[in-house]
Amino acid sequence: MCPLNPIDTIDITVDDLAKSYSNGGQTEQIFKDLQLEIKKKSFVAILGPSGCGKSTLLRLLSQAETPDQGTVKLNDAHRNNRRAHIEQKPALLPWRTALQNAYIGGEIRIDQDKKFRENYAKNLKEAFQEFHLKGYENYYPSQLSGGMQQRVAVIRALQSEPAILFCDEPFSAIDFVTRLELDTVFKQKCRDLTCTTVFVTHNIDEAIFLADRIIVFNKERPCRIVADIPNPHWRNFTDAVKSRLTPEFNALFEKIWGYLQ
Ligand code: ADP
Ligand code: MG
Question: In what side-by-side order are the strands of the sheet with 10-23?
């Protein structure tokens, strides 16, 4: 049997990455000498305190921003460059309704086939139901709450069937109970898509439920990885509420809590 080519098993490679910002004459070194590899089809949670650099890292990974030094390589050239980025502040088109905004996810697909087009409207309708947006399809973004806008952005990204999905706290503006339900739906969708997912959050529970690997950053300058924790129970956690009650979940919580303090 042929051994797997390592290039085929890694989707994102970060090499010696450095990034700084200048604010009011002061230079803030957010990252320096950062190394990271993310496996294809994995679900990685990026966890860290507010302001540590999570959104900056995600923008660098999705190539929305360029590093000062070092490189970020995405191994998705062979998959029609299919990647989606759900930003912390959902960027919806104000002149389009919620449904029309979500519709963009499919519109931008250059590889639409007959089956995709036939199923698209049905899938979209179902997604509005699953993400608790049924009845809001014809609302404009200005008529939706922040949490609702986030969910439209999530549906839009999922509808594009990305090979790599970058998410920046997509459920942060959603109440606790609904968030647990949405995390459950979202995880299943990502598993169905078998996309590589990088998910930024400052919520430990969310990271443990969703991700097969949890990378914890600190707030030092430059910001560093303080823990890189595999989650062997990831497959068994299929319900965000029930998972929280298991000893495996609590053990991981305690471990991560220790790093974040
Ligand atoms: P997090 O997402 O972890 O809350 P961010 O990545 O948004 O953190 O920000 C990390 C640091 O970088 C913060 O100190 C923030 O002020 C700074 N920063 C982020 N984006 C910019 C920018 N475009 N210009 C200047 N400073 C920025
Ligand atoms: Mg952020």
Answer: 26-39, 10-23, 69-74
